[in-house]
UniProtKB/TrEMBL annotation:
Keywords: Signal. It comes from the Bacteria. The keyword Cell wall biogenesis/degradation does not apply. It comes from Alteromonas australica. This is Membrane protein.
């Protein structure tokens, strides 16, 4: 209603701002005719940088309307950023389930697991038993008498297990936390550049790399070696997300849950934006292929989208390889 109108007006204002920004570096500079720049067929990256479109987010994913503010990027660039405040829970689907509770449970009663070795495992009772074969004889994630899986099913247990130095009491557990321990979602604020600033040397990915269109943090690789070293599985749900005490629910993989905008040209769907302002698209196009010539960050350019990334597969435990642009920032609002 009113909110939508505001969003529309905001979008229009930003479009104008973007057009002004593209037209010249400032008002006192020499004015080129628009027709010259528009008909320029030079295909360089800077000509096709489209950046973030606030209208692409699901309205219920946001705690407030997206606005713009001054910001400083990771390379020192002072510029304008979108301020995006997310509720911290997906607006389009439920969270979980994570751990199966019994070794007879089927795959609908648990989520998934990946350790970066190239496999995506369905987290059912059978997999819980299989961890002994997969990871070693000292693995025992369930009670051999009752078949019950050892799950961190209290806040104390989840917080003792979901930290780098896992409490020995919670080794050999399937780890999960409940979002209700954290007010039903952790609100976070992203500052993402309105106009991406390309870097000549890419920057390494950080703990959190961006935001999904349904209001969920897109995180960097899960620390699977630490998790496995404690004989634990930090279960993901079928969307590739799980909960930790610091940032609440977050994604470690793209499994289709934030594909809320279908590309019309057969290109993979947009799923969110990286902190540098470039779009992150799904891995596969509409015919199920990954036929892109990607750079080390998993990015490439086309005429429609400008520079953008394609997420890796869940089995790779990553979304993008690095940042091709200077990063904005993220902060937990608590
Ligand atoms: Zn995580
Ligand atoms: Zn692409």
């Amino acid at each position: 209603m009113n909110k939508k109108e505001t969003r529309y007006l905001l979008g229009a204002a930003l479009l104008i701002l973007t057009l002004v920004a593209c037209g010249g570096s400032d008002s006192s500079s020499t004015v080129d005719t628009d027709t010259t720049s528009a008909s320029d067929t030079d295909n360089t990256q800077s000509d096709t940088q489209l950046g973030l479109d606030p209208d692409n987010f699901l309205t219920d994913a946001l705690a407030q309307d997206i606005s713009t503010t001054s910001c400083t990027l990771s390379d020192g660039t002072e510029t304008q950023c979108y301020e995006i405040v997310i509720n911290g829970v997906p607006s389009n689907n439920e969270i979980g389930p994570f751990c199966p509770t019994h070794i007879d449970d089927d795959e609908t009663q648990g989520g998934v697991w990946f350790d970066g070795s190239g496999e995506l495992y369905q987290l059912d009772g059978e997999f819980i038993v299989y961890t002994k074969t997969l990871y070693g004889d000292d693995w025992q994630l369930y009670d051999e008498t009752t078949g019950e899986v050892y799950v961190t099913d209290t806040q104390v247990a989840c917080e003792a297990a979901a930290r780098p130095d896992v409490d020995p009491e919670y080794q050999n557990h399937c780890v999960q936390c409940d979002i209700e321990y954290y007010n039903g979602g952790v609100q976070q604020t992203f500052l993402i550049p309105v106009t991406p600033v390309a870097l000549s040397n890419p920057e390494q990915v950080s703990a959190d790399i961006g935001v999904a269109l349904n209001g969920v943090v897109i995180a960097g690789p899960a620390p699977v070696s630490d998790i496995l070293a404690a004989n634990t599985i930090a279960a993901f749900d079928d969307c590739g997300g799980h909960i930790n005490p610091v940032e609440g629910y977050h994604y470690h993989a793209a499994l289709g849950c934030s594909d809320v905008i279908t590309s019309v040209d057969g290109h993979a769907n947009l799923i969110g934006y990286a902190l540098d302002g470039y779009g992150i698209y799904a891995m596969l196009n509409s015919t199920g292929e990954e036929d892109y010539d990607l750079d080390e960050c998993r990015g490439h350019s086309d005429d429609t989208r400008g520079y953008h990334y394609h997420a890796a597969s869940a089995a790779e435990n990553m979304f993008i390889g690095c940042y091709s642009g200077a990063q904005g920032s993220i902060e937990v609002a608590q």
